Amino acid sequence: MEIKLWLNGKAVRDDVSPDMPLLEFLRKQGMYSVKRGCETSGCGLCSVLVEGKPVLSCTYPLMRADGTHITTLEGLEKEAEEFGAFLADEGADQCGFCNPGFIINVIAMTRELENPDEEDIKEYLAGNLCRCTGFMGQLRAVKKYIEHKRSEGRGE
Amino acid sequence: MNENNAVNRPIRKKDYKALVTGKPVYTDDLAPKDCLVVKLLRSPHAHALIEEIDTDRAMKVPGIEAVFTYKDVPQSRFTLAGQTYPEASPYDRLILENRMRHVGDVAAIVAGENEKAVDRALKLIKVKYKVLTPVLDFRKAKDNEILVHPEDNWKALCPVGADNKRNLCAREESEGGDLEKAFAESDVIVEETYHTKANQQAMMETFRTFSYFDIYNRLTVVSATQITFHVRRILSNALDIPKSQIRVIKPRIGGGFGAKQTAVSEIYPAFVTLKTGKSAKLVFTREETQTASSPRHEMEVRVKIGATKEGKIKAIDLYALSNTGAYGEHGPTTVGLTGHKSIPIYSKAEAFRFTCDVVYTNVMSAGAYRGYGATQGIFAIESAVDELAHRLDMDPAKLREMNITREGDLMPAYFGERANSCALDRCLERVKKMIDWDNKYPRRYMENGKIRSVGLALAMQGSSIAGLDVASVTVKVNDDGFYSLMIGASDMGTGCDTILAQMAADCLMCEPENIVVYGVDTDTSPYDSGSYASSTTYLTGMAVVKTCRSLTEKIKSYGAKLLKCRADEVDFDGERVYMVSEEKSISLKDLANLSMNFNDNALYASEMHTSPISPPPFMAGAAEVEIDPETGKTEVIKYRAVVDCGTVINPNLARVQTEGGIGQGIGMALFEDISYNEKGVSRSNSFMQYRLPTRLDVGDVKVEFESSYEPTGPFGAKSIGEIVINTPPPAIANAVYNAVGVRIRELPISPEKVYMGIIKNED
């Protein structure tokens, strides 16, 4: 059946199988940042934004996304690079496989929460697993990034 | 000229930009879009024989290219273990066979144009199994009348004490000193048995491989692997084709932790490509990765420790029973570390003995997981030492201070090596301060009814496999004087491409940006055993140092030729070759460009390194936990660790290695458990049943370094990758005892076990 949606700002029309999950469609469209770590909504790797809200694309039926605006990391390259530099400064980019889903949620969090503290950050990102870092380096990077955004906001 | 040394600088990983912007750099991103999809039909039985297998209907599904069964594959056995030839792991596998040895063993390979067709075909294969009784209890496996590998063409290449007619994959016995006398002279003896479970490495990228024939009609295999070169041999053995016909490439890989030191997925798409001539891809689901892969060996470790009443440890006797599961990958080798990398933490003991049996059972095959047997042994030894301290009524930290290995000590249980670099005493002292041991030991009662306590553990590991592993490196000078560093070690996210470039930068006196790194492609990379056994920093690092030394001589010699003087009259400072008399000089840039014009001096060097010893890194870890005595739930509040990995090459990457290892260790201590039902079916087949620690479970982790200087390592470095997983299980178990007096000797430390222990103590 036919589907129409906006992928990273561009209109996409495709003939798809009705049981296709969003993840498979996105990779088929060349959005290779979208990774699958499990099949049970348990790892957060496949996170993308639907109408600006994070969803797990591995179990999100494509049909539900009909007519919506989808954002993958490919559509957030500038912000990804900006936060990614903080992550790399901690050595916490590591194998990189969980980075896209994690970074999507970091970006969503900074848009959604005002001045999140450590507990807010951990809570918001709890669904994003990472097996390399033990999470500490990611936390340091997020805190420094938020501080950087704040100082930018203050015009420093 | 490089103003700051690159070594010991926390620089960003060379590949970071691609990794933070989601670039298509992993195996599945790179696979040809029209390649065949490969999937595997897996056995529902733990032990069975295929009596009939009918593939006719499956073959009729539109889009199906091929269905292969045991009738179609070569008949010589091989191992999937990524080890140097001749492998210690037995040759006990075929690509497919009629005997199913665990739930999830492979019964058929299906390849088709798309996933839907392949899924449909899988359902249409009719298999008639003769179901056999499985061996599921590893304590009953040795000399059981049911054999996991009754076949006559099973073979062990190395004398590891294996005997397939006894379900034995290996056995070993070694000892030093007069054990009987040492125990006789001991005032206190602790003898207990500890049980560590199989755990999944659970790297975020599951196993995956694609394959195709290249323009030279050679089988090319791109795979998420830590053992690029070993995969070439494994495929040659399995497919029965010459190694010269195979090329293996490792792209970026999404984590390994040892899982990918076994060629779990490679043989299947490679076989399909070989048979059909078409490109093929296999991506394991998480379920397959949880149930048919290469997890940690489950072990039961019996420890007997004797000490004088003053607390001098006299003797350690350790017996390990290891469960290798259905196949023997890494079975004979992991268990060696269980004794040889735990007993030597206390090498002042006068006598030791280490014995072990490794047995086959009908559960999924085990493999290599970070720590590789040492983790299991250290859980046992470090729990037993705490038990000893309590029996002696001593502070466990004090007992350790009295008995640990110090720099210069001989380590009889570590193959008689001497601890040439060892800051374990400083690690222990510092970690006590970091956790505030003296004020917090053993416990504090909190206002909310919970109990907070602290627990300690020490660890060691090795740095490469002594007298076996090799690493080679090639460096060449390019136009304008930038360098190419070619390595055979597999960066799996840990950052070895970067730290090796840091070392090369210091050797060649340039910035790391002036060095491009390439690896790994078996056709072009220099040979390296692979990224395992904590070998890359130590061994490949030394190969970098040696290669840069040779290259510098070549640069100087060519420079002298251009300056029309003798080689002993010049020196190189990273930017130019100059006469020591300062008469004349030539820049590296000019020299490099001239080398491409009417020149017969190749500015290219390649050296190999190996080591007769495996210098251990050391570590002290301390956990502060909070236990709810009403439920038995244990929560990690703080974890503090101090590591002696010799010189730290990249402080950020070393810290993240340590924090990551501690995170995995906390998972192993508290949650992770591969378990089976009475039919051998896994209860841990997804991330819902097999719970990994999240960022809410690890508490606050802080890591520091106490560096010794290892004289045989590059820039004084030793390894770090594996040791870091070893302290959390015993440190947390010891903290639990310190809180509620319950000794947990079987992982994971679940609320049930703690709560039942509390109840039992009250009785």
Topology:
The complex is a heterodimer of chains A (156) and B (763).
Chain A: E1 2-7, E2 10-15, H1 22-28, E3 47-50, E4 53-56, E5 69-71, H2 77-89, H3 99-112, H4 118-124, H5 136-153
Parallel strand pairs in A: 1-5
Antiparallel strand pairs in A: 1-2, 3-4, 3-5
Chain B: H1 16-20, H2 27-30, E1 36-42, E2 48-54, H3 56-59, E3 64-68, E4 99-100, E5 106-112, H4 115-124, E6 126-131, E7 168-176, H5 179-184, E8 188-196, E9 208-213, E10 219-223, H6 228-239, E11 246-249, H7 267-276, E12 280-283, H8 286-291, E13 298-307, E14 313-325, H9 331-340, E15 351-360, H10 374-391, H11 396-403, E16 410-411, E17 417-418, H12 424-435, H13 437-440, E18 443-445, E19 451-460, E20 471-477, E21 483-487, H14 496-508, E22 515-518, H15 536-563, E23 570-572, E24 576-579, E25 585-587, H16 588-594, E26 604-609, E27 618-628, E28 633-644, H17 651-670, E29 700-705, H18 728-740, H19 751-762
Parallel strand pairs in B: 1-12, 10-11, 14-15, 21-22, 28-29
Antiparallel strand pairs in B: 1-5, 2-4, 2-6, 3-5, 7-15, 8-13, 9-10, 9-12, 13-14, 16-17, 18-19, 19-27, 20-21, 20-26, 23-24, 24-25, 27-28
Written account of the structure:
The complex is a heterodimer of chains A (156) and B (763). By secondary structure, chain A is an alpha+beta fold. Chain A is built from five helices and five strands. Chain A has helices spanning 22-28, 77-89, 99-112, 118-124, 136-153, and strands at residues 2-7, 10-15, 47-50, 53-56, 69-71. In chain A, a hairpin with a 2-residue loop joins β1 (2-7) and β2. Chain B has 763 residues and is an alpha+beta fold. Chain B folds into four domains: 16-23 and 466-609, Aldehyde Oxidoreductase, domain 4, CATH 3.30.365; 31-134 and 201-291, Aldehyde Oxidoreductase, domain 3, CATH 3.90.1170.50; 135-199 and 295-403, Aldehyde Oxidoreductase, domain 4, CATH 3.30.365; 421-460 and 615-763, Aldehyde oxidase/xanthine dehydrogenase, molybdopterin binding domain (Aldehyde Oxidoreductase, domain 4, 2-Layer Sandwich), CATH 3.30.365. Chain B has 19 helices and 29 strands. Chain B is globular, with a radius of gyration of 27 Å. The interface between A and B is large, with 53 and 55 residues.
